[in-house]
């Protein structure tokens, strides 16, 4: 069956080390779009942080989709319609914030187009801010302030330490939450059933397509579900080992136009 949709993680996949889309990759995506292919940008970033790349690729004019917050939101780019949205229950906010404090790690979430956190000087908060071009706002009494629904929390620390914290947070929160690392230093906490694969399944149903018509490309732990789910799961050469092991195909790195290579090999007529 011909592949009609390509789903792309952003950081480490679609963009190179400088966080830009290279000319060859952009050209391949434009050609795919002109032949009727569907482009989906699937990222742990908030919607605001994905939109500039969607605009650069012309998805806001020609159509395409954003899966932001690791699938917590699905946005139709041309109309701006929110196709799907799910937030954490407000009653869980204090518990999640308390877990961050218990394990001595920083925490952030999002309010409007701002990152909010008790410690804005954290180097990992700066990374999230730089990636998404979002302003950072310090919030005192964070557990009291965040009394509204949020899509996700991000726990932040050194990757080796966060690897030890991850199973403890999973055990404390139980089955009603999705907890996984999108980067070694980012531990995501989302509602149960929210990951890239689950939201792609929702999108495919809406578009009357099957997973066999979909290619998914990624490099990080949060891409594992969609790479296992897709008709063709593709790992970047720079991907973490579990993603490479799960993939049907390993392409070139994000610095060597790995996405363009996949489109040219498997999709362009």
Automatic annotation (TrEMBL):
Gene3D superfamilies: 3.30.1240.10, HAD superfamily/HAD-like. Signal peptide: none annotated. One of its GO terms (cellular component) is cytosol. CDD domains: HAD_Pase (cd07516). Pfam families: Hydrolase_3. One of its GO terms (molecular function) is magnesium ion binding. It comes from the Bacteria. This is Cof subfamily protein (Haloacid dehalogenase superfamily)/HAD superfamily hydrolase (TIGR01484 family). It comes from Hungatella effluvii. The lineage of its organism: Bacteria, Bacillati, Bacillota, Clostridia, Lachnospirales.
